Sequence to fold (333 residues):
Amino acid sequence: MKYYIICDYRENLTNYAQNKNDIYNDHPSYKNIEEIISAINSQGYDCEYFGGIPELIHAIDQHKVLHNCAFLNFTDGMDQNYSRVQAPVLLDILNIPYSGSDVFTSVLMNNKHFCKQALLKNDITMPRSCLVNTLIPLEPKELKNWKYPLFVKPNCEGSSIGISSKNVCHNIEEVKNKVSELMSIFNELIIEEYVHGIDITNYIIGNNQTYYINDVIMAELSDKSPYAVYGLKEKHNKLRTLFYNEEKIPVEIIKNIQQQSLKIVKLLGAKDICRIDYRLDMTTQKFNFIEANSAPRFSSTSEIGFIAQKRNITFAKMIAYYLQTFTDRINKS
Fold:
């Protein structure tokens, strides 16, 4: 069976870097695509780059029929809203097996507010939140008795786009101003009670009872201020230090996070790969679910590469876990 890589790369998409000589938008680079293809082919598989969303649309327009192949979905999509849903929708139309979550689950994970709503009443702690868009305006009275500060951010974006420490609002006037500012750029916002603590990411590769990766990463920011936020600037300049599993967090908390993440994966219907983000209060040892990502970055320089280093395995081995997870699932269907 032949594998095709689907991925839209950063060099072709909107550049958020302040330096015009730099490129940043947190989409995979073309070098990342080449790295994945090389790792797959080095293990005796036949793999090549198919393209991204435009190429999928062209294949549909041309009524292209592909046999004995599968698509590995590594794209965040283009720059439109719900971009992570684009590839699953188009691949379903082409009727080709593909890695990662299906359309509904991708839509749900792409919407932070409704993803949280889907997990309510399942004994999952999360910050109180509400939605603001063109049809649901900000209602200051509803936020009167909330616990401040509040955090205002885009509801359907990823990669820390639209996020900085200025998104932390300490009173209703700051909330109004931030909502007004962000609504001029984004169609939909989520307002939630700010969770003091540290950023936690739980990266998962696997399905059902077979999970090759279920590892927890703690991110310590270089900014030590009380309301430090890992925003677009910090992400671009890699202003954080990563710690693996129990290096900084008690083993019992790690186990609880891992168990809850698997519960979330099952509730949302995630397939093959998923990243669950939390905020952990080290004083109370309570962790709050923040969001889920159906298409986490997969490169030797991202979290999955960090996990590979800590496990003392190659990036190619991590790719092998991903392929095994995917092929096991489609062979059973």
Remarks:
- The first strand starts at residue 2 and ends at 6.
- The chain has three domains: 2-109, 128-193, 196-332.
- The mean pLDDT is 90.
